[in-house]
């Protein structure tokens, strides 16, 4: 691992100040929360920060979970395990609880922060293994070895000819489905709320820039608005192993149904095979006002994956994604809501 | 870099390279080799220790950023003192073969019980999925956790 300077920030203002001290860009300064990904990628020499700002002391100010009639507010430093086990989240936002406890391992969940989790980098082997030359995400212009390589686990939605890496997280797919917003503090002292769907950028021809965050920006909270659909919600994750694995395909679904099963509101996030956290507005539009049954669910899934682009080994994924979404929709319909 | 590290109740004042993971400080500087280095990438669980009762992967924790008291396998019972119920159950249930993953399994298993995630065999399997065992002693690990859970809960009620 390369040498770096470690600073400890007592609060957000100090963290932002410390981050602003290092000429930013190219990830030269990084916030350290759980560290589960940062230290891993530093050991692999994929991330090479010159300064780490330890923000764990910010948990005092930004580590709360609040659920009220307006919705759910989650501090950025809340640990994944604590949100997953929170009784109100389990009852009123099951899709969030499930997306969290199905992710990673118990140890990683008891370390990792929510903000760190949404900023998770891809697991594409060509990105993680620096012995490969071709990775536009690591080095723009070097090409993409995955296009004709081992790409079984990589993305089929939202990809570009420069990068087909998949976004590996789960929680973010639930956030994007539920219209969440993210609070960001900037080094100039300002704060802003951003629609979560606008946090991650499409790879396009700049796959090395993954989010719309400016250098030094610090995520401080997430807000999930309340709605009649949050209780009838679930996260379905399909993976090679029964547990402790990344999704091959996943669906975050939330439904508001009339008593006879007509869809008033459908909220659909898709993961495992997308370049970034993915909301399927197409599938939602098809279901709205329709009776939810196998036929309408299949039609919605067809629309959700209509824009799929495959590259050999991952050509099974659109079909897997469609089946995952259909099953998630029908299971959500069958949920008994008290 | 100077750090104060509390391990198994003792405070250690150390000067370390800022890059050192907690795992390496435990093994190389404090001689606590019970905590094992497996993958060193946060994937296998062999290096699991507790910090203030939470299970963490010591290979992915910077020693200089540790907040709270660290418990390793060496800290579960004193010299000549009775074993922790989880250690005892692992012995009784033959919950290992080579033993390399065992310290991490035991620390993780203790947290699995204290978190309230040892309600059924299924739940134990899910919440022990971060500890890999190449000898595949999994069935007996599940048995050991169920056995230790009863004892840990009985002991907690006594207190």
> Which structural class do the helices and strands of chain B define?
alpha+beta
Strand content of chain B: 5-15%
Distance between the termini of chain B: 41 Å
CATH superfamily placement of the largest domain in chain B: Beta-grasp domain
SSE string of chain A, helices as H and strands as E = EHEHEHEEHHHHHHHEEEEEEEHHH
How many domains would you count in the coordinates of chain B?
Answer: 2
For the biggest β-sheet of chain A, the strand order reads: 4-5-8-6-7
Give the distance, in angstroms, between the N- and C-terminal Cα atoms of chain A: 52 Å
Extended strand count of chain A: 12
User: What does the oligomeric state look like here?
Assistant: heterodimer
SSE sequence of chain B, one letter per element: EEHEEEHHHH
Care to count the β-strands of chain B?
A: 5
Q: Give the overall form of chain B.
A: globular
Beta-strand percentage of chain A? 15-25%
Stretches of chain B where pLDDT falls below 50 for ≥5 residues? none
Give the class-level CATH name of the largest domain in chain B: Alpha Beta
What is the secondary structure topology, with strand pairs?
The complex is a heterodimer of chains A (338) and B (159).
Chain A: E1 5-8, H1 12-21, E2 29-32, H2 38-43, E3 51-54, H3 59-62, E4 65-68, E5 71-75, H4 80-84, H5 87-92, H6 94-101, H7 106-111, H8 114-118, H9 125-128, H10 171-177, E6 181-185, E7 191-195, E8 218-225, E9 233-238, E10 249-257, E11 263-271, E12 278-279, H11 281-287, H12 294-304, H13 317-334
Helix pairs in contact in A: 6-10, 11-12, 12-13
Chain B: E1 2-7, E2 10-15, H1 22-29, E3 48-51, E4 54-57, E5 70-71, H2 85-92, H3 102-114, H4 121-127, H5 138-158
Antiparallel strand pairs in B: 1-2, 3-4, 3-5
């Amino acid at each position: 691992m390369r040498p770096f300077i470690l600073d400890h920030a007592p609060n957000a203002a100090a963290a932002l100040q410390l981050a602003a001290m290092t000429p930013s860009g190219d990830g030269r300064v990084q916030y350290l929360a759980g560290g589960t990904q940062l230290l891993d990628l530093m050991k692999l020499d994929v991330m090479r920060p010159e300064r780490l700002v330890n923000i764990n002391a910010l948990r005092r100010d930004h580590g709360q979970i609040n659920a009220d009639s307006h919705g759910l507010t989650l501090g950025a430093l809340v640990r994944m395990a604590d949100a997953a086990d929170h009784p109100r989240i389990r009852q009123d936002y099951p899709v969030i609880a499930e997306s969290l406890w199905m992710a990673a391992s118990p140890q990683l969940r008891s370390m990792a922060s929510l903000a760190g989790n949404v900023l998770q980098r891809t697991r594409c082997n060509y990105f993680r293994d620096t012995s490969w030359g071709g990775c536009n995400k690591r080095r723009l212009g070097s090409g993409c070895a995955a296009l004709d390589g081992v790409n079984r686990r990589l993305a089929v939605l939202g990809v570009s000819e420069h990068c087909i890496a998949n976004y590996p997280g789960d929680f973010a797919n639930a956030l994007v489905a539920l219209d969440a917003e993210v609070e960001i503090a900037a080094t100039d002292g300002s704060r802003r709320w951003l629609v979560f769907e606008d946090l991650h950028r499409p790879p396009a021809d700049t796959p090395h820039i993954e989010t719309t965050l400016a250098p030094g920006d610090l995520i401080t909270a997430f807000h999930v608005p309340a709605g009649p659909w949050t209780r009838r919600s679930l996260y379905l994750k399909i993976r090679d192993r029964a547990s402790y694995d990344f999704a091959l395909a996943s669906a975050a679904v939330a439904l508001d149904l009339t008593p006879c099963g007509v869809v008033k509101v459908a909220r659909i996030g898709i993961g495992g095979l997308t370049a970034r956290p993915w909301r399927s507005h197409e599938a939602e539009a098809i279901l709205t006002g329709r009776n939810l049954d196998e036929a309408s669910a299949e039609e919605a899934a067809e629309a959700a994956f209509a824009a799929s682009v495959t590259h050999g080994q991952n050509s099974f994924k659109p079909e897997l994604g469609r089946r995952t979404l259909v099953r998630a929709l029908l299971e959500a319909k069958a949920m008994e809501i008290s | 870099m100077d750090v104060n590290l509390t391990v198994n109740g003792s405070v250690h004042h150390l000067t370390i390279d800022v890059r050192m993971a907690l795992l390496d400080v435990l093994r190389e500087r404090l001689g606590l080799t019970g905590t094992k280095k497996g993958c060193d990438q946060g994937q296998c669980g062999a290096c699991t220790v507790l910090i203030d009762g939470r299970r963490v992967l010591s290979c992915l924790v910077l020693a200089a950023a540790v907040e709270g008291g660290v418990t390793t396998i060496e800290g579960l019972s004193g010299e000549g003192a009775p074993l922790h119920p989880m250690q005892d159950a692992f012995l009784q249930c033959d919950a290992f073969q080579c033993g390399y993953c065992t310290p991490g399994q035991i620390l993780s298993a203790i947290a699995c019980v204290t978190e309230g995630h040892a309600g059924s065999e299924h739940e134990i399997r899910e919440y022990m999925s971060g500890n890999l065992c190449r000898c595949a002693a999994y069935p007996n690990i599940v048995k050991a956790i169920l056995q230790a859970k009863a004892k840990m809960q009985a002991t907690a009620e006594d207190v």
